[in-house]
Amino acid sequence: MAGISLILQNNPTVTVINCGTSSPKLGGTISLSAFPNLQDFRCNNNDITAISGYEQNSNLRVIQFFNNKVTGSIPSLSDMSALYWFACHTNQLTGSIPSLSANTGLRLFSCQINQLTGSIPSLSGLSNLEFFGCFSNQLTDFAGGSVSNTLINFQAQNNQLTQSAVDAILAEFVAAGGTNGTLTLGGTNASPTGGESNTDRITLVGRGWDVTVTP
What we know:
- By secondary structure, this protein is α/β, with parallel strands linked by helices.
- The strands form 3 sheets. It has a 9-stranded parallel β-sheet, covered by helices on one side.
- Helix 2 packs parallel to helix 3.
- The chain contains 3 helices and 13 strands.
């Protein structure tokens, strides 16, 4: 089946696209390059294989294309200053998670259940971020940098994070000073230094956090 771009092409005044659901599911590819004023794009629970043409759109605030069959990599998001919700989980994406340093309004980022490699990027400066999900990938490292105390749900379980990466993540959440959050680092990741007796983990639990690490 052709991509939705063939239905809505040459509509520069469009600000919202929601593919909805259909039977059979939408397939093929989607290009958003003909929609310079697009602010909200949602195409979830279909069989789309590629989505392109959105990475230069500074008007986009919401991008959701979870539970499709999208391959390739996540493009640079550095020009998307208005972005606050990016959800690409449950696809077949490869490559690394791009830098998010320019996306200072970002509140939710979910890329879990793909085939991503490399590092969890620095989350420094993302003072609005509340949820970051990257579990069930093949990530091995953490790029470092501070996290905001607004980030109260961080899920990175079932990757290949090293002990030093797990230790660094725990330390940054302690330094952030947040309370009553969820921090999940268990599964196939390495154990932190000291395992479940890790000092930073115990500190966070004392602040009301639900912290899961590999024993």
